[in-house]
Write a structure and sequence with these properties.
With 76 residues, the protein is mostly beta strands. 7% of the residues lie in helices and 42% in strands.
Length: 76
């Protein structure tokens, strides 16, 4: 996984870590099992590579990995 991620430096990725954990950012680097991303707001994020389940190149600004908007009516 680390060799693959190292080839993605400079690209924008969606990273899914399981459950509700998904992140999008530009890959800045990879060091000692930690992936460094920067989001569109310029904030940095550091992800443990061994926690990553799925990663893919981001296609557009509207699509995000993981979360789906709640489109179901509340039954309360």
């Amino acid at each position: 996984m680390e060799d693959f991620l190292a080839k993605m430096i400079g690209k924008t990725l969606d990273v899914y870590c399981g459950g509700g954990s998904s992140l999008r950012g530009n890959v800045l680097g990879l060091e000692k099992g930690v992936l460094h991303l920067r989001d569109t707001d310029g904030k940095s994020c550091y992800i443990a590579v061994n926690k990553i389940v799925v990663v893919w190149e981001a296609r557009d600004d509207e699509h995000r990995a993981g979360f789906v908007p709640n489109s179901f009516p509340n039954k309360d």
